[in-house]
Amino acid sequence: xxxxxxxxxxxxxxxxxxxxxxxxxxxxxxxxxxxxxxxxxxxxxxxxxxxxxxxxxxxxxxxxxxxxxxxxxxxxxxxxxxxxxxxxxxxxxxxxxxxxxxxxxxxxxxxxxxxxxxxxxxxxxxxxxxxxxxxxxxxxxxxxx
Length: 145
Known about the structure:
Blueprint: H1 2-16, E1 31-36, E2 41-49, E3 53-58, E4 61-66, E5 70-76, H2 78-110, H3 115-135, E6 139-144
Antiparallel strand pairs: 1-2, 1-5, 2-3, 3-4, 5-6
Helix pairs in contact: 2-3
């Protein structure tokens, strides 16, 4: 049992750390986000990578981040954005159902809620939460220290 736990922990540690060499597969001009150990964030287009640093073009000019200071390098991920929208829409449907079964039941008993109002109870939160999830950019980690 201890051996299995030890193997699992070492596998998780290997999974969490990605190799610096993975950055060599990035194409110049690709949008990237580099997070430094100190908390500084650089967003721009990928320029290149060497054994000791990554170069990117930002709005303020060229930024060079040394490998020893880089905590994480990320690229945009469209697949995760779709997943996030689906999750946000599902949360919206759940919120709509909860509102419909509580306040909606009350309003139907007291004042006769219309079908259009009942539809808005589901559509509004679904669109709201799905839109929030879509607006939150989705990034895939290429390198993690």
